[in-house]
Amino acid sequence: MTADNDGHDAGHGGGDHGEGHSHDSGHDHDHDHSHDHDHGDHHHHDVETVGVAVLTVSSSRTLDEDPSGDAIEALVGDSEGAELVARTLVGDSRDAIGEAVDEFVGSEDVDAVVTTGGTGITPDDVTIETVAERFEKELPGFGELFRRRSESEIGTMVVGTRAMAGVVEGTVVFALPGSENAARLGTRELILPEVSHLAGLASR
Fold first, then answer.
1. Are 101 and 124 in contact (CB under 8 A)?
2. Beta strand 112-116 with 50-57: parallel, antiparallel or unpaired?
3. Which among 105, 187, 87, 100 is positioned nearest to 142, based on CA atoms?
4. What is the model's pTM?
5. Strand 50-57 and strand 164-168: pairing?
6. Is the pLDDT of residue 21 over 80?
7. The CA-based dihedral angle spanning residues 18, 19, 21, 26, taken in that order and rounded to the nearest 10 degrees
8. Confidence of residue 41 (pLDDT cuts 50, 70, 90)
9. 88-105: b or e for each residue (b if 16 or more CB lie within 10 Å)?
10. Residue 16: what pLDDT?
């Protein structure tokens, strides 16, 4: 099984996932530089309603016991600009993760994929390696901002957090740690505020 042993889990005594910390609300906008000076038309290409697919990576959970996936689904469901169109859970296998991501990306209903789990540094944490090899474009600002937001809660253990995002065949893919709090932070503060804009640009 994966411990998804980045700072979001280690900061709460290890185990499968930590749940003891919260994060400040609010969000920063990190837009494509080519659009920085075109504020009047900045959201011209936004997707009106983003279809989101959620992929939980864990060998110890099931869909019936998946608090991180549940948190992402609830936040997406409460958002006016996004809707859940697919959700699944796979074990800590590069083949299984890759097949699930490829299936989501290949679906016409999916504009964005959010994975949770498998982003730590244990040998079986392979989500990052699996999605990164599919990226046509990486969005480094996502991981940078996620770690910045996490530092106040988990301190220097943030160095073990490998959250990242990128574009795969016109679909934005976000990889979050497996803790419920990390899933909430990334989805609420970073993904949902920007996903319609990013999805629109990626699919042009």
1. no
2. parallel
3. 187
4. 0.81
5. unpaired
6. no
7. 110
8. low
9. ebbbbbeebbbebbeebb
10. 39
Residue 144 scores a pLDDT above 60: yes
Q: Does the 48-202 domain belong in CATH 1.10.3720.10?
A: no
Q: Cite the beta strand spans of the chain per DSSP E.
A: 50-57, 82-90, 112-116, 137-138, 164-168, 171-176
CB-based contact 104:50 (threshold 8 Å)? no
Secondary structure class of 193 (helix, strand, coil): helix
* pLDDT at 45 > cutoff 90: no
Q: Coil, strand or helix: which one is 13?
A: coil
Mean pLDDT along residues 156-183? 96
The runs of H, that is alpha helices, within 18-176 are: 67-78, 94-105, 127-132, 140-154
Tokens of 132: 């990164």
**From the CB of residue 37, how many other CB atoms can be counted at a distance below 10 Å?**
8
**Residue 21, both tokens:** 């910390």
Q: Domain map of the chain by residue range? A: 48-202
